[in-house]
Amino acid sequence: MNLPKRYSLLVVTVIAVTMFFGCESNFKEVQKINFSEFVPASDADTVNIKYTDSGRITGVLISPKMLDYSNLDFPFTEFPKGIDVTLYDKKQKRTFIRGNYAVSYKNTGIIDLIGKVKITSEEGQVLETEQLYFDQKNEWFYTERKFKLTDKKGVSYGQGIDFSKDFKVINSQRISGEIESDEEL
């Protein structure tokens, strides 16, 4: 009578082990399905994008590489090999922007420029820094990093600056350098 009891215990154990390993294999497949990879929705080489407003060109963006992550919850576009942007104001005056790397966040309209960022206006004003943000909606640049600003009045250095895209309004912090001023003391 012991033999059939042992035999049935052995059969139950074999079935349980088989089911366990069979379920583990399926469980790993289910995990793979639920795992979302960080993969761009699109990938483009040699990009030349023109932005318009009412038929008027407001900007031109050129980049050797663009990765579009619009498939994520917080969508963004990455330019891992840098960007070269020309912005146009209503009078078609240009502002030139270069950076070694950039990320444009779709929900906020903020562009993060990183690495040897250089902005030049048609009037000859040049701002250089290592990181700069651009608020597209308000057409406003800002950084808390060190910067160098060169214009007709001289060269100034500082840490922390924000300014309009046409350089007409500039607010700088912790600034040093020689600057000519039209204001009388």
TrEMBL record:
PROSITE patterns: PROKAR_LIPOPROTEIN. Pfam families: LptC. This is LPS export ABC transporter periplasmic protein LptC. The lineage of its organism: Bacteria, Pseudomonadati, Bacteroidota, Flavobacteriia, Flavobacteriales. The gene is lptC.
